[in-house]
Design a protein that fits this description.
Helix Hairpins, binds zinc ion, alpha+beta, elongated
Length: 444
Amino acid sequence: MLLKAVFKPGKAVSLLLAVVILISSFSFSAFALTDAEKQEYKNQIEAIKQQIAENQAKIDALDNEASQYDGEISALQSKIDALQDKIDLYNQEIALIDKDINRVNQQISDVEAEIEALNKQVKALDEQVVQLEQKKADTYVLLGERIRASYMSGASTPLEFILTSDDFEFQVYLERVELLQRIAENDDRIIKQLEQNIIDIGAKVAEIEDVKKRLNTKISELDEAKLEYEEKKQEQVDARKVIEDAEALIQKDLDKVMAIVNKLDAQSAEYQAAIDKREEAILDLEDKLAEKNTHYGSGVVEGDMVWPLPYEDTYISSSFKWRWGKQHNGIDTCRWSGTHGADVIAVKAGTVEVANWGYGGGYGNYVVINHGNGVLTYYAHLSNITVSVGQRVTQGKVIGQAGNTGYSFGAHLHFGIMINGSWKNPCDYLTRYTPGGKYIQATD
Ligand SMILES: [Zn+2]
């Protein structure tokens, strides 16, 4: 077994002193209860039972008072339920109308998209017209230039020419006139063609504008339909509002009644909590009456006792043996990974009998748990205590943390078992955690 005992001169004397102080500081109930004591406990139990009965009567009265509101509550609730059914119907109707409105909105945006596309077409056609007009203007300019050229070459008009020219010149003139005429005809054709194009485009634009007009009419119709749906919806919303207002009024009445009932329930719960506390007190008194809570008994340890440090890496630094001229009244146990602050647990269910802060006659901060049958366990040198006297603890309950308080040199847990006033070797009673989480009978 692992032993890490560190001998310190003077420790033996101090420990002896500590144990003497410790033992003398407890008032063991070494003797059975007297008849008078038993009677006193019985009287206390009876008195508490009487208080419980009084509280129960108050609870019954409160419950009775609360139940008088049952009819009113269920009547109000069924009214609310009926109104809520109506509201649900309105909600369904409104949801359907919303669907219609969404559909119309979709249609409107589709038509708007169509109009937008047509607008683009019109714009493109308008640009074409501008180009054609430009071409027409250019052609006119050309034509003008040609006519000017013919004037500048001689006579201005045929009549003027006939009066002033001879035959040959007239012949040349006629040829020129014919040529000019042909050019003019050609220009005229081009202009006419351009004008025809412009007219065609105008017709196209007019067609498109016609379609746009129809689409706009359609949008107006859709807007009207939407307006109708919205009016219909508003009617439903208004009707629903009437029902909702009625429901709110009834809900107010219900809230008032529920507030009264809740208050009664809260009072009832308070009385119930008082009863629970008193029932616990009776259990304690019955324990005392049965002499369970004394330091003497059969000495039987029922069930397992687990290792007080709930870890797999513990070792015994000093075992239960004759040491420094006296018996070491327990074992010292540590953790390889560090003991200070490690959790210390109740090795077995019991009642906290001592939760001492201070030097503790050398034990430092320490806890004693009474397991009944005359079995006590001691946990010494704690850095912290997390239980209080009278508290019932289950096996494995953390009662504090290991430390180095009192007469101690280095953090460790001193653990002792006293049965009917005698120290026992804890290893004869404890199971140990092993790596892998199994329990084995402890040995030292
Ligand atoms: Zn020790």
